[in-house]
Every structure is written in structure tokens, then in C-alpha cells.
Amino acid sequence: MANFYLDNPSLKHHLNHPLMKRIVELKERNFADKDQYDYAPVDFEDAMDSYDKVLEIVGEICGEIIGPNAEGVDHEGPTVSNGRVTYAQGTQQNLDATVKAGLMGISMPRRYGGLNFPIVPYIMAADIVSRADAGFENLWGLQDCAETLYEFGNEDQRQRYIPRVCGGETMSMDLTEPDAGSDLQSVMLKATYNEQDGYWYLNGVKRFITNGDADIHLVLARSEEGTKDGRGLSMFIYDKRNGGVNVRRIENKMGIKGSPTCELVFKNAKAELCGDRKLGLIKYVMALMNGARLGIMAQAVGLSEAAYREGEAYAKERRQFGKAIIEFPAVYEMVALMRAKADASRAMLYETARFVDIYKALDDIAKERKLTPEERAEQKRYAKLADAFTPMGKGMTTEYANQNAYDAIQIHGGSGFMKDYACERIYRDARITNIYEGTTQLQVVAAIRHVTTGTYLNRMREYEAMEYKPELEGLKKRLIAMTEKYAEMVQRVTDSKDNEYIDFMARRLVESGAHVIFGYLLLQDVNACECFLRSAEVYINYGEAEVAKHFHFITTFDTDALGYYKQ
After folding, report:
1. pTM for the complete prediction?
2. CB neighbourhood size of 180 (10 A)
């Protein structure tokens, strides 16, 4: 039987990271739930065993149901009739299987029907699901919207909605509009308060809404009359049971076809405020988007893994000129780099997830009691690292997913252009990852301040100070040299005090920083398991060349040449 968890040893490697001890300790609050819930863990080992067993179930469902359904779902897709969406047959089977296995709301507290899993095993499940079918991950992964409900909703809302998500109901986040894509402060969907019944009513149109016919929606709408910026926006909860929202159409997309991307029409749709007025964009959507970006990183990693496996398998099977094509240097170099990019992406994904786990757990504890000074410092440290690593990770891992999907088709040659092979679907599915939830260019905008303020460089120095096996000293020295080049580039660019020049060089600086960080993360992986050595060597070779390229561009660039790039 196929199992997408058991056939990938790197997953257990990341699940057993030393920081998981602290994460479980914070998440389980001294295992207080064990007296109330028979499925709650009694100690750290029991918790880890629980994560492992649930991920094995995820892996089996992905290998036996979701993966085999992926091609059929891609061809059939969802349909819309009378304002309602019907999923493809395979999608419905996938949902039924995940709901039956209790895989909805797994990160939610047990008192709401969840499993109280940390972010790391939840994101690992998303990684596995994405390898099977990235389109289905868009439906299953939107359960993460419940995290926003838990974080910002009141207790009555938590008790009414979160158990429904844990029980299998789906969610969506309704943010974008025809005239408000990346610029969400331009959202104009109108929210009007009715004094008589105490509810809000929504009117307008939303576009590009993933799983737009979901049971429970989080909706960004303009609650303050006469405003035109983000300060006039609030977050609302819409329940499909109340009616008032219809699907006008499903977008005809390039990829992730099993996931219905909808245009929604709101006509006096009854809703309730989530959190405080005016904080919809400023606070709640920012939190929602950061969670979504981590989910897209997982989707990208799953796609990278799928693309690599398709490419490698075909390269070993396809024979030309009397031998398997993987024996040709041009092909085996491609396959090795695909593996290295997938491993580096996964290392970044779980490093970021660990940061998120710790700061969010401490945020949650702060609702119950006052944090100690040490805990406040820990919360601040990991929140800053999560804020830095999320845009860098989202930007790089999604670009690598696209590159791996491209190379998988190239390895297949003409066959890869045909729908007979999964790599064609993977290629189309990957393309959206570096666009939605903030394009790569927007991730650079978010990441550059962590370049200029030294967040990334400080983290590199921390990685450098870690103890590594003597045989890894050569790779470490090369990473140190890459770090010095990165630091010099940052110094040269920031010394200019020219914001336009800094923005122009931002992508090169962020990418260079990422190559160093990804390299160190792989080096740590090798330190724990020699199985990552090949990927570390290949990736550091690649990253070294990329940093040298950016170093040459920045150190030889004449700022007067900026004018050449303008219209």
C-alpha cells in the first residue's frame, strides 16, 4: 500500500527536531488535558507518537485515495448550478476520507473537537496532501481559517463555529475583489449594521475566492462609511446556512482545477463581526495571510517533492542511446538539483513552522496568565523570526516548486507535454504558488526590512556558531564565505541611503540571504543524518554560484544605470 508519509524519511527527521520538546511543552500545558480526554497525550513521547500515527494515516489516505484521484479531479473539476458548487467526484471522496479519519480542525483545542496538534505536524500533513494533489490541499488546508476564528473571535463564536470545522465543514477567506487584489485596502464590499437585530449585512462582489461556496466564510468588508483605506475595514463571519451569498461563476484556471475559485455575490448576507471594528486588514488579515503563506509553503514543498519523484522515476526508466537517461550528466545534474531544492525547501518550511509554533503557543498562554519575563523575551524572539522567515520561505519555496515542475517536464521531453503524465498537471498546479497569498515580488517587499535591520544576518551568525561534525567543516567554511559576501552586499546597498536603489536590489539581497540560510539548514540536517549530505553539497554549490552572481552584479553596478530599467 502506498503511504506518502512512510516513503519519505525526511518527514520523520523534521518531526523529531530537538525544538519539538519545547513546542509540545507549550502546546500541552503540562499535559493537563489527559484527565479529561482519553485521546490526549500523557507525556512528550506519547504526544510525538500521536503525531506520528496521525501522519501515517494522512500518508495512507494520500497514497491510496487522494493521489490516485488527482488526475480524474483535474479533468472533471467542480461545477456550479443555481449559485451552488458541486465538487468533482474524486474531491468529494477525498473530503469524505479526511473527515472520516478526523483530519479536520486538527490544530484546534480539544474542547472544540480538535486534536490540539502544533503547527509542525499540521503543516507536515499539508505537505503530504500537496504532494498527492495540490488542488485538494486548497480545500483541506483552509481549515486553518479556524485559527483566525480561535485567535480573534469571542468565546461564543468559537463554540459555535470551530466544532463545525472539526466535524468536517469547510471554510474560505473572502478577501479579494475585482478592483482589490494585492491592494486589499481598496476593498469596497459594504458592511451595514442593523440596530434592530444586531447583525451586519454584506453587499458587493468578491473574486478569486478559493472554495467560495464553503460552509463558513471569513469576509473582509468596509464597515466605516466614507472611508477608503485599510482603517475602514473589519472582519466578518458569514454562515452559508443564513443565505445571501451566491456563486456567480467558477474561474476557468490553468491549474489546481479541483479547487473551485469563485466569484461571489453578496446580497444582504447576514454576518457577524469577528474581533473589533476597523482592525480587519490591519490586524486580522495580516495574521490570516501569514498562516496562509505558511500553508502555501507546504503546498510548494509537496509539489517540489512530487515533481522530483516524477522526474527521477522517468529518468531511470527512459532509455536512449542504450542507457537510462539519468546516466547522462545533463540529466543527473538536473535531478540532483531538484532533490536539493526540495530538501532545502522542506528544511525552511519546518524551521519557519517551529518559530510560528512557539510564538503562537506563548500568545495563547498569555490569554490565560501573565507571561514571565523569560517567556515574553522568547515570544518576541520567535515572533520576529517567524515574521522574517515567512516571506523569505514563501518566496523561495514557491519559485523552487515552479523550477522543479519545469525540470520534471524537461526530463520527460515531449512526453511531459502530454496529459498522459502527472508532471504536466504538477507544472500547471505549481504556477499559482508564487502568485497567490502575495506574489514573490511582494514577499521580497516584506522580507527586505529583515535584510536591512540585520535579522537574517544575525540568524546566519547563530547557525554558524552551532556545533557541526568535523567532516562538515569544509561546507561550513563555504557558508561562512557566502555570509561575508552577503554582508558586504547589504552594506554596499544600504550605505547608499537611496530607497529606490535599495528596492531595486532587494530581490538579489533576499535571494542571497536565502541561499545562505537554506545552506545552513541543510548542514544541520546532515549533522543529524548523513542521508542529507548529497543535497547539502549540491545546494551549497548552487547557492555559492548564485550569491557570487548577485555579488558581482551589486558590486559592479553603476547607480546611474537605474534609468535604463525605467520606461
Report:
1. 0.96
2. 17
